[in-house]
TrEMBL record:
This is NUDIX hydrolase. SUPFAM superfamilies: Nudix. InterPro entries: NUDIX_hydrolase-like_dom_sf, NUDIX_hydrolase_dom. Residues 44-178 form the Nudix hydrolase domain. The lineage of its organism: Bacteria, Bacillati, Actinomycetota, Actinomycetes, Kitasatosporales. The keyword Oxidoreductase does not apply. Keywords: Hydrolase. Gene3D superfamilies: Nucleoside Triphosphate Pyrophosphohydrolase.
Length: 208
């Protein structure tokens, strides 16, 4: 048995989109089960996202603190954002988000991990990048709005983040997955063995 996720699509007898929002929508599919029964499944249709675990020379991760209304929390997170343009190169989107949210640029980029955030109810796919060799970006700072107006920034050592994740103090999925993946990669073949930044991403195909 090969332990690897595989692409598969079951027959859909009917589909409807009862809600369409600014960036996402809700879809209802009537899906044929293996026994022939038909079951209705509702899920959020999402354009996909990128996130950036930016690691500085002092082995600290760049974090932002932002209000998230659905969970009524201010969460510590890593820079992230939507793939607003269909087919957008995820590396370009990640570089944009790092600039806009932290006014930082990076010279070394790798793919840290790819995840589906909530596959039982949403088709969002996220590519988490590792960014190293950081420096302050040039030019004017991005003008923040909405939840980003009072955004805080911090740089936190990797070891402390791991402790806080395991203690239940941090909950953002990209931060949790990113930090633990970083530690696992170091314990395995090393960070330089990670996939290149332009590695294929079947969940969200893109142009080079």
């Amino acid at each position: 048995m090969t332990i690897k996720d595989t692409s598969e699509e079951w027959e859909i007898r009917a589909t409807d989109t009862p809600f369409t929002g600014n960036k996402t929508s809700v879809r209802t599919d009537d899906v044929v089960m293996p026994d022939g029964s038909v079951v209705r499944r509702d899920y959020q249709v999402h354009p996909g996202s990128v996130a950036v675990l930016a690691l500085d020379a002092q082995d600290r991760v760049l974090l932002i603190n932002q209000y998230r209304h659905p969970v009524r929390h201010k969460l510590w997170e890593i820079p992230a954002g939507l793939l607003d343009v269909p087919g957008e190169n995820p590396l370009h989107a990640a570089q944009r988000e790092l600039y806009e949210e932290a006014h930082v640029k990076a010279e070394d980029w790798r793919v840290l991990t790819d995840v589906y955030t909530t596959p039982g109810g949403c088709d969002e796919a996220v590519r988490v990048f590792l960014a190293r060799d950081l420096s302050e970006a040039e030019g004017a700072r991005f003008e923040a709005e909405h939840e980003e107006i009072d955004m805080e920034h911090a740089r936190v050592p990797v070891d402390e983040l791991v402790r806080r994740v395991l203690a239940g103090d941090l909950h953002n999925n990209c931060l949790v997955v990113g930090v633990l993946s970083l530690v696992a990669a170091r314990a395995g073949d090393g960070l330089d063995a990670l996939r290149p930044a332009d590695a294929p991403w079947p969940a969200r195909p893109f142009a080079s």
